[in-house]
Amino acid sequence: MNLLERYIAKTVLAAIALVTLMLAGLQIFILLVNQLDELGRGDYGVAQAAFFVLLQMPYQVYLFFPLASLLGCLVGLGIMANHRELIVMRAAGMSIAQITLAVLKAAVIVIVLVTLIGETLVPRLARIANDHKMQAMSGGQALRTASGVWLRYQNDFITVGSVLADDTLENVYQFRFNDTHHMSMARKISHLAYVDQQWIASDVAETRFLGDKTETSQIKQMPWDVVVKPEILGANSNEPDEMTLRELRQYIKVQKRSHQSVSNYQLAYWQRLFQPVTTVVMMILAIPFIFGPLRSSTMGSKLLVGATMGFSFHIINQFFGPVSQVYQIPPIIAAVGPTVVFALVGIYLMRRVR
What we know:
Elements: H1 3-34, H2 46-82, H3 85-91, H4 96-137, E1 142-145, E2 148-153, E3 156-163, E4 168-177, E5 183-195, E6 198-210, E7 213-223, H5 245-257, H6 263-273, H7 275-291, H8 299-326, H9 331-351
Antiparallel strand pairs: 1-2, 2-3, 3-4, 4-5, 5-6, 6-7
């Protein structure tokens, strides 16, 4: 990397860092507003919400980083264009292809750094954030472990094997103790569904301990005598944002063997796998706005058009995922589709660059 390439890379990276900080500040405000409805549940107060948002921010930055890359490249190259530095570079014999290559070299640096953080630190922080929020909202009576969710209700200790997205629980074990700390009842509940503000237990195997004897019974369906709000158990023990790519791939394989729906996990897997490609596409999209038809426009116009395209991609990418699950579109198409469309737009715009 020669002197000019290093200068371009340094300017672009500094602009990306600045834009990332600005978007992070906006995202912090949005996340805090989203927590207002949950304040006051259990021990979940302002301090707990702020701690949750702080730990969630690295994951949010990871999600909008392609957008930040596009805006950062626009700002960095736009400043150089306004200072006539790009004109001097081209007069010195540096082609648009060489400038683009310098931007891509900067992209490699930032992509490697973001990917390393996204696959090591981000999942751990997301898990800590969700655990902290669950414990606070349950008043310290819920605890998540590697084997599932544990919670306490009066003298009952309950472990939940799986928390599904539609307010249903599977493989629930309930242990009840008396005032002398002896077990008085144990249950295995295959399925729990939250219907009309009430948990309904299905396929219950119950054992009662009565002094020197026990009584067992099988119950097909019954109201559950434990009051637990679904939102307390809303943090699944296996959320996509808490797993690395390797863990996601293994989880998908295991769930497929048991014939479980994993479309949302597959979508998250493919989106994260193609995240570096998406970032490169977004950074290349900045080039036509600097050297293309908008090269004679003001810096504000370039930023407005570029920001519109970047936010359009971010919204489409976030919107297309849920829509694909409703209409049974393959997750890989839903994850790669927006990137391919914008890559084609970038190729078209690049061909018009002079």
